[in-house]
């Protein structure tokens, strides 16, 4: 069933929006004969013209030869009627995310194509099995989920429904490769792989904001500078649009019967309700109007820097940092100097209580990630402001930016990365895809610096487990319950990818 032969493959695309146009462009660039159809008058023709303009612009920029551009454009055809798709080998649907509308389309397509034609949906979250329900030939229906912008995003998720044959899956995988994408076969589950796995990064950032621990600018700066993400979670949500990411988050949360690991916050919903949708409306978590400037994430140096500190617990990393700061490390607590700690998963309050330290003089530093550019400092309620500022001054004096936050178990980075890793482990536990494919999908689909299981392995599964265990204990929230996949591999001391 289906055919990816270079000479014979004909691809139909229903939906001439951004996704449909992008799919058409990469397919035509691969030498595939493409037929674009859209119910809206002139939409398919406009799509073809827009693709042609983009390609010719690349010629002007010296990124494409004129022959390559015109050869690609010649592969793009406008279908005036849905019946014009009858001879296609594969048809990809890229219309509105509405189950009833998609079902109606697939029934219409089934009435005009041959039994050998593969019908694929570019849905980002709707179950493939639900789309295919009611069709006579459900075995030839599958998911082929691309990512926007299609010409730049290499990932494509291939999703078999309950009746999809292996031959159809193999054909869709081969088609994805021919289009220059990296296919990952994913189980038919709400949100598939990327839209499910991507919830952790943003919803944990929202939880930290909800607790008034840090501002969006502070959280974004930490995730960029300390963890290597290209965009912070709030920058990312403003870019995709609150009208996109909140409904997806709510859908995934509800689809998993209210799993607390997937929930959002009231403020996320509030932005949607008040029309503060991000860049597209000029205001979301940030302002984007003329002259608007992003709030600073950096603490400011004021006064003298600390000269002496006492390390609450032995720590080679903390000792090395203190020496870099040029401060003297006391052998015993003198009762007046700043106390430094580097807790794992604990907040400053819990750390002070456990160690019997004076919380008024204790400054906790997150040393779990890269601190060459930025370091996160937090203190417990009632901390002496002068002590806090003296430590911040010393940190700034070392050439680092400092993000000073309120008390939080796991700081910022520990919390967010642990949740990303934990959700990745849970997806592996549920068998949504092979562990290595989960990592590949998250890197390619979301531009993560590492996949979730790679994060767990590079930090250390036991380290991640310790952070989650402390978070669950201190908050009493099952949002932080560790995945059994993670617990077992951390306990056995084996790589997190081990099946």
Structural category? alpha/beta
CATH class of the largest domain: Alpha Beta
What is the name of the CATH superfamily of the largest domain?
A: NAD(P)-binding Rossmann-like Domain
Give the overall silhouette: elongated
Domain 3-hydroxyacyl-CoA dehydrogenase C-terminal: 191-288, 410-491
Pfam families: 3HCDH, 3HCDH_N
Domain 3-hydroxyacyl-CoA dehydrogenase NAD binding: 11-189
Protein name: 3-hydroxyacyl-CoA dehydrogenase
Structural features, described:
- It is a single chain.
- The chain is 43% helix and 12% strand.
- With 499 residues, it is an alpha/beta fold.
- It has three domains: 179 residues, Rossmann fold; 86 residues, N-(1-d-carboxylethyl)-l-norvaline Dehydrogenase, domain 2 (Orthogonal Bundle), CATH 1.10.1040.50; 98 residues, NAD(P)-binding Rossmann-like Domain (Rossmann fold, 3-Layer(aba) Sandwich).
- The relative contact order is 0.09.
- The mean pLDDT is 96.
- InterPro entries: 3-OHacyl-CoA_DH_NAD-bd (IPR006176), 3HC_DH_C (IPR006108), 6-PGluconate_DH-like_C_sf (IPR008927), NAD(P)-bd_dom_sf (IPR036291).
- Keywords: Oxidoreductase.
Strand and helix layout:
Blueprint (H helix, E strand, L loop, with lengths): L9 E5 L3 H12 L3 E5 L5 H18 L5 H9 L1 E3 L11 E4 L5 H12 L7 E4 L6 H5 L8 E6 L8 E6 L5 H13 L3 E4 L8 H4 L1 H12 L5 H10 L7 H8 L1 H14 L10 H8 L34 E4 L4 H10 L2 E2 L9 E3 L6 H8 L6 E5 L7 E5 L6 H13 L3 E5 L7 H17 L5 H12 L5 H8 L1 H15 L8 H9 L7
Parallel strand pairs: 1-2, 1-4, 2-3, 4-5, 5-6, 7-8, 9-10, 9-11, 11-12, 13-14
Antiparallel strand pairs: 6-7, 12-13
Helix pairs in contact: 1-2, 2-3, 8-10, 8-16, 10-11, 16-18, 16-19, 18-19, 19-20
């Amino acid at each position: 069933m289906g055919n990816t032969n270079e000479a014979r493959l004909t691809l139909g695309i229903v939906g001439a929006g951004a996704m449909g146009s992008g799919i058409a462009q990469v397919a035509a660039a691969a030498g595939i004969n493409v037929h674009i159809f859209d119910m809206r008058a002139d939409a398919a023709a406009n799509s073809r013209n827009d693709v042609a303009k983009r390609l010719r612009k690349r010629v002007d920029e010296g990124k494409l030869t004129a022959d390559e551009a015109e050869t690609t454009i010649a592969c793009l055809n406008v279908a005036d009627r849905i019946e014009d798709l009858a001879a296609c080998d594969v048809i990809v649907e890229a219309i509105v995310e509405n189950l009833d509308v998609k079902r109606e389309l697939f029934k219409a397509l089934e009435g005009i194509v041959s039994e050998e034609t593969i019908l694929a949906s570019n849905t980002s979250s709707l179950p493939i099995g639900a789309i295919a329900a009611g069709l006579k030939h459900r075995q030839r229906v599958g998911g082929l989920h691309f990512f926007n912008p299609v010409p730049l995003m290499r990932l494509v998720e291939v999703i078999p429904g309950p009746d999809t044959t292996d031959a159809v899956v193999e054909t869709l995988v081969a088609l994805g490769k021919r289009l220059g994408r990296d296919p990952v076969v994913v189980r038919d589950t709400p949100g598939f792989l990327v839209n499910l796995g991507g919830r952790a990064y943003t919803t944990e950032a929202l939880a930290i904001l909800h607790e008034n621990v840090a501002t969006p600018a502070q959280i974004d700066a930490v995730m960029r500078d300390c963890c290597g993400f290209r965009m912070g979670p709030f920058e990312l949500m403003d870019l995709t649009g609150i009208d996109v990411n909140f409904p997806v988050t709510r859908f995934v949360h509800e689809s998993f019967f209210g799993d607390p690991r997937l929930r959002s916050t009231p403020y996320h919903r509030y932005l949607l309700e008040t029309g503060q949708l991000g860049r597209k409306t000029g205001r979301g978590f940030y302002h984007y109007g003329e002259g608007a400037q992003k709030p600073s994430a950096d603490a400011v140096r004021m006064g003298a820097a600390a000269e002496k500190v006492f390390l609450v617990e032995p720590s080679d990393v903390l000792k090395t940092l203190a020496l870099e700061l040029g401060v003297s490390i006391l052998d015993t607590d003198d009762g007046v100097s700043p106390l430094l700690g580097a807790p794992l998963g604990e907040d400053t309050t819990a750390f002070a209580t456990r160690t019997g330290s004076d919380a008024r003089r204790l400054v906790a530093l997150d040393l779990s990630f890269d601190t060459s550019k930025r370091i996160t400092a937090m203190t417990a309620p009632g901390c002496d402001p002068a002590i806090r500022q003296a430590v911040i001054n010393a940190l700034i004096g070392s050439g680092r930016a400092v993000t000073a936050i309120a008390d939080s178990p796991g700081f910022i980075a520990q919390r967010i990365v642990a949740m990303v890793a934990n959700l990745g482990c849970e997806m592996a536990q549920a068998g949504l895809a092979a562990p290595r494919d989960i990592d590949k999908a998250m890197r390619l689909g979301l531009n993560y610096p590492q996949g979730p299981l790679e994060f767990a392995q590079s930090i250390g599964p036991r380290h991640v487990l310790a952070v989650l265990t402390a978070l669950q204990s201190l908050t009493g929230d099952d949002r932080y319950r560790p995945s059994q996949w993670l617990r077992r591999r951390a306990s056995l001391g084996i790589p997190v990818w081990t099946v």
